Amino acid sequence: MDALWDGLKEALRLIGTGDAGLREVAWRTIVVSGSATLLALLAGVPAGYALARARFPGRTILIGLVNTGMGMPPVVIGLVVWLFLVRSGPFGDLNLIYTKRAMVIAQFLIATPLVVGFTAAAVQALPPQLPDLLQHLGAGRLASLWITAKEAHLGILAAVMAGFGAAISEIGASMTVGGNLQGETRVLTTAIVTESSRGQNAEAIALGLVLLVMAFGVNLLLTVVQQRRAA
């Protein structure tokens, strides 16, 4: 209890004094995880819609792969991305390894299966006659996708929350492809590992509390939007 109390006091001190190091790491965390979530949303919602509505050979296998990806260990994804981006890999000439862009790629791959899976489930829960009705009313593909997304907004917002939660809380992939470089690629999760490995338990707990508050704030905002639309 003493360590937790010390961590709480340290968190309040860091926030109250506007600690520059904390602001830097927290902002980098939001930028990296937010970018990855946005990209996952742009790719995952159309893919989830197509997976829910299309009928083609191997569809069940593809759904199984998406469901497997939803539970894929982040460190495995980080390893795969590292193998592709390291200098000896196929994309080594791009010099992406140990950069924020590499972390965005890894977190994107972590979040996208969640967005696809949640979106597909939300669209499949809609009346099956909806696509025919929209086509009969003259809606094009983009219009049909937009209207369907509005009808399935509760599930899609849940997909965004799940994707963002997976991105901002993961650590294995960020450490693997980002390198945890101070001032460059260090985010809240990797900073927690760094401080705890140094025996700085109060600082580690403080960073953990900041991460929890940040994740709760973003998810609370999305939940408010979700429940208002549900009402």
Folded structure, characterized:
It is a single chain. The chain has 231 residues and is mostly helical. It has 11 helices and no strands. It has helices spanning 2-16, 20-53, 59-70, 74-85, 100-124, 130-136, 141-151, 153-169, 172-178, 188-197, 201-230. It is globular. The model has no long low-confidence stretch (mean pLDDT 86).
Write the layout of secondary structure elements.
Layout: H1 2-16, H2 20-53, H3 59-70, H4 74-85, H5 100-124, H6 130-136, H7 141-151, H8 153-169, H9 172-178, H10 188-197, H11 201-230
Helix pairs in contact: 1-11, 2-5, 2-8, 3-5, 4-5, 4-9, 5-8, 5-9, 8-11, 10-11
Relevant terms:
mainly alpha; 11 helices; 0% strand; globular
Q: What oligomeric state is this?
A: single chain
Element order: H for helix, E for strand: HHHHHHHHHHH
Number of strands: 0
The main pleated sheet reads as: none
Tell me the CATH topology: MetI-like fold
Q: Which structural class is indicated by helix and strand composition?
A: mainly alpha
* Share of helical residues: over 70%
**Helical region count?**
11
What does the overall shape look like?
globular
Low-confidence stretches: none
Whole-number average pLDDT? 86
Strand content: under 5%
What's the number of structural domains?
A: 1
CATH C-level name: Mainly Alpha
Give Rg in angstroms.
Answer: 20 Å
| Terminal residue distance | 41 Å
* CATH-derived architecture: Orthogonal Bundle
CATH fourth-tier homologous superfamily: MetI-like
